[in-house]
Amino acid sequence: MNSILNAIVDNKRREIEARAMLGIYDKALSHATKSVYTPVSMSRSITDNEVGIIAEFKRRSPSRGDIHPGAVADEIVKGYTKSGAAACSILTDTVYFGGALSDLALARKSTSLPLLRKEFIVDSCQIFEARLYGADAILLIASILSFNDIVKFTDTAHQLGMEVLLELHDMDELDRFNPEVDMVGINNRNLSTFVTDTDVSLQMASALTDDIVKVAESGLSSIAEIHRLRDVGYRGFLIGETFMKHQHPGKALKDFINATE
């Protein structure tokens, strides 16, 4: 892992240890399966949607700094919902992305769309927490997990009624592909340089069978890119900064979708 990703994961493990010591995860473990909310299928929502955009809520990123400081999750997600998103991604990391679990909770109250908890998941307790706060799916990042972790975390998510988006970055990570996951995301961002290149998704498409729900992630900013990726089998497109950099992200999404028609 590169130095930034190492720092994020190290900090995440410290957060988990601190929250465990405070007994915060005990609540998640005991209440997750009692939630009145029943998760819905994110993969089905993507494939049933004409465009398949997973609109992301995030305030900042390590590579870009502040993108939309002060953004309110329920307001943004309502706008995404009205504008035709297939699903929403909610970043819950606080230190590096300015997010919080409260953003996921607010988003859950404001939409019936499936929600992805976008987080650096390294422990099962985070999966129970995702369920408690209203997520329909979780992100598993292959570069920070072993194959056994991915299998175990996928099973936990499925037992809780949630789906899994497994994120890959290059061909070297194909050995961590678990056929039980519901979606596979190809991240176009190089984790060493943080440069994005949508050709990564194009190159990886042939390595994944047609029955896999493929999601292209990061660096998507033009209609031409969406069309090119759809032509090689992608059905989901996770887009955040392209919308969040605008004052009204929902309107930016609507304009983007209208331009694809």
TrEMBL record:
An example GO biological process term is: L-tryptophan biosynthetic process
**All copies of domain Indole-3-glycerol phosphate synthase, residue ranges:** 6-255
Q: Which InterPro entries match?
A: Aldolase_TIM, Indole-3-glycerol_P_synth, Indole-3-glycerol_P_synth_dom, Indole-3-GlycerolPSynthase_CS, RibuloseP-bd_barrel
Give the reaction(s) catalysed: 1-(2-carboxyphenylamino)-1-deoxy-D-ribulose 5-phosphate + H(+) = (1S,2R)-1-C-(indol-3-yl)glycerol 3-phosphate + CO2 + H2O
Judged by the first EC level, this protein's enzyme class is: lyase
One Pfam family recorded for the sequence: IGPS
The enzyme's E.C. designation? 4.1.1.48
Q: In which pathway does it act?
A: Amino-acid biosynthesis; L-tryptophan biosynthesis; L-tryptophan from chorismate: step 4/5
Q: Alphabetically list the UniProt keywords.
A: Amino-acid biosynthesis, Aromatic amino acid biosynthesis, Decarboxylase, Lyase, Tryptophan biosynthesis
Q: Its domain of life? A: Bacteria
* GO MF: indole-3-glycerol-phosphate synthase activity; phosphoribosylanthranilate isomerase activity
Fetch the Gene3D superfamilies from UniProt: Aldolase class I
Protein name, per record: indole-3-glycerol-phosphate synthase
Give the organism, scientific name: Muribaculum gordoncarteri
